[in-house]
Amino acid sequence: MTPAELTEWVKTQGLPAFRGKQIFQWIHRGADWPEMTNLSAALRAQMSDIAIAQPVRIQLERVSQLDGTVKFLFSLPDGNCVEGVLMHYHYGYSLCISTQVGCRMGCKFCASTLEGCVRNLTAGEMLGEILAANRYLREKAPAGEGEAAAPRVSHVVLMGSGEPLDNYDQVMKFLRLLREPEGIQISLRNVSLSTCGLVPEMRRLAEEDLPVTLCVSLHAPNDEIRRRTMPIANRYSMAEILEACRYYIAKTGRRVIFEYALSDGVNSGEDQARELAGKLRGMQCHVNLIPLNVVKERDMKGVSEKTVTRFLRALEAEHISATRRREMGDDIEGACGQLRRTTLAKNT
Ligand code: SAH
């Protein structure tokens, strides 16, 4: 709930309006009813029966031996589960969150979409993923340093399972919750939203006045190749996507990031790098190259380091800003959808 919604709600419970603000503050600090010490014990007991303050729990965690990246399997109140990944960078902790249980976009290389979309996450559940990660960091922090010193999530990427722009309203509500003065106050400049290219929603997002970084999963230099791996490419052309990106850049003044997962025999040739460069020329953008992460249920291949380097050099020669994305948590099924699938498979 927003502060205004929570204030209305506490009034329906026969409580004074200021309780709404108190409860909002507590929820965003990760507290559940028993810990809300400025509420009377009787009130806390009454509340614990009728609402859930912290909807997201960590069902499973795996810590990478390579780089300390943590993969979470979060459980939701209805028994569904989604994945999140916590990464430690020099600038802080970044959490990759899911926006839907599963996904209905059907990309051929992705594990999240194999069984379609079960349901959208609510704004509260998305926030709950961050609060659960903050609780985890607090519990792991050295004892005696106090709550204020415990590390927290400072950056958020909407790159877990789901298509954020297919769950538009709840995602917008979630983004606005992040910057509430009484909330967890994560700057939207530290938030990246990734889409497979839902053009009308990209344009709508440009008009929201929310300074998030827009990332677009391109994965191809032209429509023909894109249609082979991404069903959404049958609905919107690359020309329409790039036009929506230009609109986003013009409206927000922020550069757009293109994600490009390289797959052998599909999109990784130097000619294709040059074709891509031709389309992006003059645009305020950056290309993130990712060697495709092989998903065992899919028949798409990854690429060698040499192929990545060649593709990168070809883009650079055309003056396109590009980097090879650092892989983290490779030993813990860090890529989206994989951990949930193996866990579901074990439990059935
Ligand atoms: N639906 C959104 C958000 C998912 S973000 C989107 O499509 O952008 C997850 C990113 O990982 C996307 O760029 C997605 O295309 C990419 N991805 C999915 N499966 C992958 C795989 N097996 N290897 C590399 N990248 C993959």
What does the model show?
The mean pLDDT is 93. With 348 residues, the chain is of the alpha/beta class. It folds into 2 domains: 48 residues, DNA polymerase, domain 1; 290 residues, TIM Barrel, CATH 3.20.20.70. The protein has a 10-stranded mixed sheet with strand order 1-2-3-4-7-8-9-10-11-12. Bound molecules: S-adenosyl-L-homocysteine.
- What's the story with the biggest beta sheet? 10 strands, mixed
The ordered H/E elements are HHHEEEEEEHHEHEHEHHEHEHEH
Cα Rg = 21 Å
Structural class: alpha/beta
**Strand arrangement in the largest pleated sheet:** 1-2-3-4-7-8-9-10-11-12
Bound small-molecule species: S-adenosyl-L-homocysteine
What can be said about this structure in brief?
The chain has 348 residues and is α/β, with parallel strands linked by helices. Helices cover 37% and strands 19% of the residues.
